[in-house]
Design goal:
Strand content: 15-25%
Number of strands: 7
Distance between the termini: 33 Å
Structural class: alpha/beta
CATH superfamily: NAD(P)-binding Rossmann-like Domain
CATH architecture: 3-Layer(aba) Sandwich
Order of helices and strands: EHEHEHEHEHEHE
CATH topology: Rossmann fold
Length: about 220
């Protein structure tokens, strides 16, 4: 059974989304920057998996094109080409206009937008060739905030990227969408990651004539 790949498999939304797909019996590939995060994610998702669905992990930095593409290839070789790609990596930090250097802004953009572009460009053509697939990107900042300049710019870029992906691959059956999270993620709150994860599954399961391209979780 074709499965899902989650980039940014930390203990919040990333792992919650992975568990949600694993509960449906889908094989799941997990990608994160550190070995410790990957190992913890694999253990947590395996416990949630239905029917012994395979769970594998790879270490890669989403800003490193070579390592990210290699990780995606490794996961595909083990689990098969994915039907779902989730990009959940982000650099979240407060910063005002003029506080960051140009290099720091480029580093933030690389995490928040370019990593998603690299991953989508790597797997979406195969999805289009098969006539099916889902590319989901975690968004945020439904309204730009002056105290979060780099993140506001990055999440605006995510929305534009989703539009571009839909224009490029949508006609071939690839559903591109973002899940915009409009608040701080924390278990037991209105922004519980397990609650947010339901949006990802619902978007993947949507019939083509009902596709949404952005869901806003406002709590």
């Amino acid at each position: 059974m074709p499965g899902a790949v989650i980039i940014g498999a930390g203990p919040g939304i990333g792992q919650a989304v992975a568990r949600r797909f694993a509960r449906e019996g889908l094989p799941v590939g997990l990608v994160a920057r550190s070995d410790g995060t990957v190992k913890a994610a694999v253990e947590a998702v395996r416990k949630a998996a239905t029917g012994g669905a395979a769970v594998v992990g790879r270490t890669a930095d989403s800003t490193d094109e070579t390592s990210l593409r290699a990780a995606l290839d490794d996961v595909a070789q083990e689990l098969g080409p994915p039907d779902v790609l989730v990009h959940n990596a982000a650099l979240v930090r407060p910063d005002a206009i003029g506080e960051l250097s140009a290099r720091e802004h480029l580093e933030a953009w690389a995490v928040n937008v370019v990593g998603a572009l690299t991953a989508a460009a790597h797997v979406a053509p195969g999805m289009a060739a098969r006539g099916r697939g889902t590319v989901l990107v975690t968004g945020g900042m439904p309204e730009p905030k002056p105290e979060y300049v780099s993140l506001s710019l990055g999440k605006a870029g995510v929305r534009t990227l989703v539009t571009l992906l839909d224009g490029t691959y949508g006609a071939s059956g690839v559903h591109a969408a973002s899940v915009t999270v409009a608040g701080p993620v924390a278990p037991g709150t209105a922004f519980d990651p397990d609650v947010i994860a339901e949006h990802y599954w619902r978007l993947h399961a949507q019939p083509r004539d009902a596709w949404e391209h952005e869901v806003v979780h406002s709590g």
